[in-house]
Write a structure and sequence with these properties.
It is found in: Cytoplasm. Helices cover 45% and strands 17% of the residues. By secondary structure, it is of the alpha/beta class. The strands form two sheets. Strands 5-6-4-3-7-8-9 form a seven-stranded mixed β-sheet, sandwiched between helices. The chain has two domains: 8-78, Orthogonal Bundle (Arc Repressor Mutant, subunit A); 84-196, Rossmann fold (3-Layer(aba) Sandwich).
């Protein structure tokens, strides 16, 4: 993503805007208002206008936003023309699901290499992706110029792995383990805690139910 001084929450919404604008363009729509966008992406119109304002005047009063121009703009911001290679470490049940998801069909990222300790799958192709031994980790990351890694290993192995990834030149880690990784400032970590997300969802559901009783 190009460098812009924007809030983290705004940055996380940009891919959602980009995907919806793609759908609009495919349907033949040429312009859209912030209210129409709000209805589709479920963010309020004021939030959308504030997000867009960080990038200057993207729309026109009384006209709205040009769909193709806006989509191309966010495509450049998100580096959609550059296909990023991603390493997947841990080809268990979750890792297999991520391989089958096939990121490159809907984004500018693709899993190009997977790593595991299971001798039964090392040196095989899983969902079109070669699986290497953990001993090949640093060499493959360097050879394939991989800068992003997805980590789905057991928590006990996560920190040692993060240390290896940082030393190998990885710049970003998508961490599916419950452990909060200690990494250098040059490495960005995005934590995906499925258990926490589910518990949060249940909390809000239960509180809504209680409020309605």
């Amino acid at each position: 993503m190009a460098e812009h001084d924007i809030p983290r929450a705004t940055a996380k919404r940009l891919p959602i805007y980009y995907r919806y604008l793609n759908l609009l363009l495919d349907s033949g729509k040429t312009r859209v208002s912030s209210n129409e966008l709000a209805e589709a992406v479920k963010f309020d119109a004021a939030t959308i206008r504030r997000d867009f304002s960080y990038f200057g005047a993207l729309g026109k009063r009384g006209y709205g936003y040009d769909v193709e121009a806006l989509m191309n703009f966010f495509g450049r911001i998100l580096d959609q023309d550059t296909l990023a290679s991603v390493a997947l470490i841990g080809v268990g049940n979750l890792g297999q699901a991520l391989l089958n998801f096939n990121f490159h069909q809907s984004s500018n990222a693709r899993i190009s290499a997977a790593f595991d300790i299971n001798e039964d799958i090392i040196n095989t192709i899983q969902a079109g992706v070669p699986v290497y031994s953990m001993g090949d980790l640093e060499d493959q990351i360097t050879a394939q110029r991989i800068e992003v890694a997805i980590v789905t290993v057991p928590s006990v192995a996560a920190q040692d792995l993060a240390d290896r990834l940082a030393k190998a030149g990885i710049k970003g880690i998508l961490n599916f383990t419950p452990l909060r990784l200690d990494v250098p400032a040059s490495v960005r970590v995005q934590n995906v805690d499925l258990t926490n997300e589910l518990q949060t969802l249940l909390y809000f559901i239960n509180n809504v139910d209680l409020a309605n009783e």
